[in-house]
Design goal:
The protein is α/β, with parallel strands linked by helices. It has six helices and ten strands. Strand 7 and strand 8 form a beta hairpin. The structure holds S-adenosylmethionine (SAM).
């Protein structure tokens, strides 16, 4: 995963140019900043800063973390605001980034979290957020003909895609497509309150609040 995204950094943003996804993207670009207005935000796996650029003008501050120095180099150029700090880090070790934040956002990251690590990820995230903080996850729905085909699945139920980069290299990438019911079940076990699911033809968003006690 990490070496794949480091190698893909320069061509990553092509995913935002797929013609069939443009209408959804314009709607989400309006919706997301309004959902996180004024927050002291932690952005997990920010990549090249595509979503950071829409959040920076409205958040009171952002710490944006990614494991790849290559994607962060692009993100820093794209998002010049001094209220945004880009840091190399690990989504499973967020305690190194100076919590407690009032909200968190992760775009197109949760689909790459193995099923067996989803609770661990959410627990670690909640620990660096204030009680009552809002969490927003945004990710892909599987759409035949637009999404890369599922090449295989493992015994746990994780699904994998085979992805090719411009240099011809092929990468096996874990990519899960959780349903609304699966997401609600995850937070239902005490990890989140006031959970809500929204969807567009190509994307889903899942919001919850960190439990108060
Ligand atoms: C699908 S990209 C999403 C990028 C960005 N959020 C977006 O929506 O455009 C997934 C990102 O996760 C990063 N990543 C992979 N493993 C990570 C980890 N353990 N901790 C933090 N970031 C990680 C990759 O470098 C990549 O930038």
């Amino acid at each position: 995963m990490q070496s794949y995204y480091a190698a893909r950094a320069g061509e990553y943003d092509a995913v935002y140019e797929k013609p069939e996804r443009q209408a959804d993207l314009r709607q989400i670009e309006q919706w997301l900043p309004s959902a996180l207005y004024g927050e002291r935000l932690l952005e997990v796996a920010c990549g090249t800063g595509y979503w950071t650029q829409f959040l920076a003008p409205v958040a009171s501050s952002i710490v944006a973390v990614d494991s790849s120095a290559e994607t962060l180099r692009i993100a820093r150029q794209r998002v010049p605001q001094s209220t945004v700090l880009f840091e190399v880090g690990d989504a499973y070790a967020l305690e190194h980034h100076g919590g407690l934040f009032s909200a968190a956002f992760a775009g197109f990251w949760f689909s790459h979290v193995p099923l067996e690590r989803q609770r661990e990820f959410l627990r670690g995230l909640n620990e660096v957020l204030e009680p009552g903080a809002k969490v927003v996850l945004l990710d892909n729905r599987f759409v035949e003909g637009s999404s890369s085909a599922i090449a295989e699945s493992d015994a746990t139920g994780n699904t994998y895609q085979s992805r090719k980069l411009i240099d011809g290299s092929t990468h096996r990438v874990l990519k899960n497509f959780p349903s609304e019911a699966q997401l609600l079940a995850l937070t239902g076990g005490g990890l989140g309150q006031a959970a809500a699911y929204a969807s567009w033809p190509f994307f889903w968003a899942f919001e919850y609040r960190v439990p108060e006690a």
